[in-house]
Structure formats: C-alpha cells, structure tokens
C-alpha cells in the first residue's frame, strides 16, 4: 500500500511539473514576458484593449500592450497605454497610434501608423494617439443612417407610389373587365350557330349573284335581238315591202320579249326595294322565277 501511494505521488508531481512547463512555454510564446522597447500612447476610449493586446506597426505584429492605466490629462480622464515592442523599430516622431479592428470577429488591437518625418522617436517616448473609426461603430452608424433614410425617404416614397398605383390598379381592373366582356361577345359572335348562319348567308349571296348574272345574260340576248331587228328593218326598207309581214311578226315577238324583260326588271327592282334581304335568300321569289326565261 505504501509503495502505491509513492507511485501516485510521483505521477501527480510529474503531471504538475509538465503543466507548469506548458504554461511557461505558452507565456513565453505569447511574448508577455519578453521585454523590449517601451513606448506610451493615450486614448480617450480603450474598449477592447487590455494587457496582452497585440500591437502592430503598419499591419506587422511587433509587440503587445503591457499595461493600461487611467490618467488625468487636459482636464479629462485619458488612458495611458504602455506598448512593449519586442522588435526594434525606428518610429518617426509624427507617427500615430490608433485602435483598429481588422475584421468583424477579430479582437481590437493597437496599430502604429508610420509618419513621414525623419526624426526618430526614442524608446520611452509618447506616440500620439489618434481616433480611428471602429468597424462595429461604423456598422451601427450605417444601420442608423439606413433607418433614418427609411423613415424620411423610402416610406414617403412608397406611400406616394401606393397612392398613384391604387387608381391605376382600379383602371386596370376596369379595363380587364371590359376586355372580358368584349371577349365574351366575340365568342358569342363566332359561336357554332352563328358560323353556320354566316355560311348559309354566303351561300345565299352566291345564289343571288348567279341570278343577277343570269338576268344580265338575258338582257344581253335581248340587246342582240334588238340589234338584229334594227338590221332587219334596214333590210326591209332597202328591199321593199315583200317581207314586211314576216318582219312585223318578228318585231312583235321581239317587243313581247322586251316587255317580258322589262317586267322582270321592274319586278326585280321592286323586290329589292321592298326586301333588300332577298339578295341573300337561298331561292328567288315565285313571281320572279315564273317571269325569268
């Protein structure tokens, strides 16, 4: 039993020793214990800055913050930041130190921005502290500005658009309703029954055109017979009176045909005047059919 206790003690001591060595190595690696050139700077606000905060020179890590303490300066409270620069640097006297935030999720750090003068600030000197726009403050300011723009510009503009769009939408709905009614009328106009009716009407018009053509042909025949009658009359005058009786008979027949044609024309004109729709009827009236040759 005594030997087991000794073994436990040795194992525990070894573990504690290794833990101490690990912590010491981490402490040395982070550079908190390494001594370098000391510089000072002052800020009115040190949010996120604490002992161990990284110090960079133009983006290159050169040390860390070894102390933060409040001091009275120019009748107000300032915070003196002790900068432990492990790497030797020649810092111009007009250089400035600012608190920077590399990214949204990055911790703030102290950034030394190189000046343009040739004089070098000695170790222990005071680097002028400058204000830098914090990323989160910028995001908050941007959100505030967007909110203000929304309240003062976008909302009134949307309200004005709504006032102008509402009557336009009402007019559009009215127009669509009229279009729908017109489309219904067009569908009714071109229904199957109406299409059949139009087909019958066109066929009747074709029949009426054929009747008119037949009447025109009859008139042309009558005209030819009249011309022949005139020629025969001239021959009768020239040859004397021996064929007078035959000519008179032909004249009577021709006059009878002229009278029939005249009756047909009169009946056709009267029918058209009384009933214009007769032009598109499928069959001519009974009287007209009886008169036509």
Any overview of this molecule?
The chain has 4 domains: 30 residues; 98 residues; 55 residues; 100 residues. The protein has 5 helices and 7 strands. The longest helix has 55 residues. Helix 3 runs antiparallel to helix 4. The chain starts with a helix and ends with a helix. It has a 7-stranded mixed β-barrel. It is 58% helix and 17% strand. The chain is an alpha/beta fold and 293 residues long. The radius of gyration is 60 Å and the shape is rod-shaped. The C terminus is likely disordered.
The value of Rg in angstroms is 60 Å
Task: Give the structural class.
Answer: alpha/beta
Number of strands: 7
Shape estimate = rod-shaped
- Give helix % range: 55-70%
């Amino acid at each position: 039993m005594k030997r087991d206790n000794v073994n436990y003690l040795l194992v525990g001591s070894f573990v504690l020793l290794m833990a101490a060595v690990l912590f010491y190595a981490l402490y040395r690696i982070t550079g908190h214990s390494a001594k370098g050139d000391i510089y000072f700077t002052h800020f009115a606000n040190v949010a996120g800055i604490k002992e161990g905060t990284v110090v960079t020179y133009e983006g290159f890590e050169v040390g860390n913050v070894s102390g933060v303490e409040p001091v009275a300066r120019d009748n107000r409270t300032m915070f003196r930041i002790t900068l432990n620069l492990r790497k030797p640097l020649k810092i111009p006297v007009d250089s400035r130190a600012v608190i920077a935030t590399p990214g949204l999720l990055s911790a703030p750090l102290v950034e030394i921005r190189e000046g343009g003068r040739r004089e070098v600030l000695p170790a222990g000197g005071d680097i002028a502290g400058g204000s830098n726009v914090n990323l989160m403050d910028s995001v908050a300011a941007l959100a505030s500005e967007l909110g203000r723009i929304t309240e003062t510009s976008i909302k009134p503009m949307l309200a004005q658009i709504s006032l102008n769009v509402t009557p336009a939408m009402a007019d559009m709905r009215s127009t669509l309703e009229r279009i729908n009614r017109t489309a219904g009328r067009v569908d009714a106009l071109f229904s199957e029954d109406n299409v059949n009716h139009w087909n019958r009407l066109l066929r009747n018009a074709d029949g009426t055109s054929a009747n008119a053509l037949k009447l025109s042909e009859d008139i042309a025949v009558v005209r030819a017979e009249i011309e022949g009658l005139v020629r025969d009359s001239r021959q009768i005058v020239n040859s004397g009176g021996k064929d007078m009786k035959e000519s008179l008979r032909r004249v009577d027949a021709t006059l009878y045909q002229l009278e029939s044609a005249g009756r047909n024309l009169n009946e056709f004109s009267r029918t058209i005047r009384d009933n214009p729709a007769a032009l598109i009827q499928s069959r001519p009236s009974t009287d007209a059919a009886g008169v036509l040759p």
